[in-house]
From TrEMBL:
<feature type="transmembrane region" description="Helical">
    <location>
        <begin position="36"/>
        <end position="54"/>
    </location>
</feature>
<dbReference type="Pfam" id="PF02361">
    <property type="entry name" value="CbiQ"/>
</dbReference>
<feature type="transmembrane region" description="Helical">
    <location>
        <begin position="12"/>
        <end position="30"/>
    </location>
</feature>
<feature type="transmembrane region" description="Helical">
    <location>
        <begin position="137"/>
        <end position="159"/>
    </location>
</feature>
<keyword id="KW-0812">Transmembrane</keyword>
<dbReference type="InterPro" id="IPR051611">
    <property type="entry name" value="ECF_transporter_component"/>
</dbReference>
<protein>
    <submittedName>
        <fullName>Energy-coupling factor transporter transmembrane protein EcfT</fullName>
    </submittedName>
</protein>
<keyword id="KW-1003">Cell membrane</keyword>
<keyword id="KW-1133">Transmembrane helix</keyword>
<feature type="transmembrane region" description="Helical">
    <location>
        <begin position="98"/>
        <end position="116"/>
    </location>
</feature>
<feature type="transmembrane region" description="Helical">
    <location>
        <begin position="227"/>
        <end position="245"/>
    </location>
</feature>
<feature type="transmembrane region" description="Helical">
    <location>
        <begin position="61"/>
        <end position="78"/>
    </location>
</feature>
<dbReference type="InterPro" id="IPR003339">
    <property type="entry name" value="ABC/ECF_trnsptr_transmembrane"/>
</dbReference>
<keyword id="KW-0472">Membrane</keyword>
Amino acid sequence: MSKFIKELYPTTKVWLILGLIVCTVFTPGYLFQYSLFGVAVVLALCSGILPKFLSLFFKSIFIICLFIFVIQTFFVYHDHVIWQWGWLRLSNTGLQTSYLMTSKIVAIGALLIWFFQVTEVKAIAAAMQNAGWNKKLVFVILSTMQLIPQMTALTTTIADAQKSRGVETEGSMWQRIKSFIPMLGPVVLTSIEQNEERVLTLESRAFASHLRPTLMIPVKKTRVDRILSVIFVLGAIGLFYWRVFK
């Protein structure tokens, strides 16, 4: 099952994600949106990436939603206060607003995390080129998608280098802040140097040529991909029509 999901054409998974996002936006309330997290968990389980999916979700989306929930519930003033302790107020309106805001973030964030964990960046690039996208636009999109992982890996490498030189990079929060500031310079300079190397590499591979490049990754759309794409698109259109015109 995991092999089947990972080998699906990238646009097939894109239509699935877009269809579920349309359902998230046009379905009232928050129960359905929170249930989509369960759908994402099932998809991650079938894809064989459940531990990695949960780890990334709770390190990113969960923290953001928890922060929004606390601020919106206890620090933003609403009517119908049901509990109060000093300047902290808990109201039914605040709870409902927090549920509505965080539910959409949870649903969309979980689905996007699953998509990027089961879809390789090079497969996305190949699908864009197959669709006839401008290669400069493809490069900009892929560079943006790879920016955070590259910066994270670069920061880890520089931190290890600093640690080997005797710089204390672990300990209290204040100690980590003090060790992080000297790393900003090497991170910025190395990023600029890598961009120059990337430009030279692209020019050496005839990136400016107007000829259609040869794809080295065998990404093909099968009959199953076409059927699933039609189902996902029709489902999203049907839900949109039902919510807007009914």
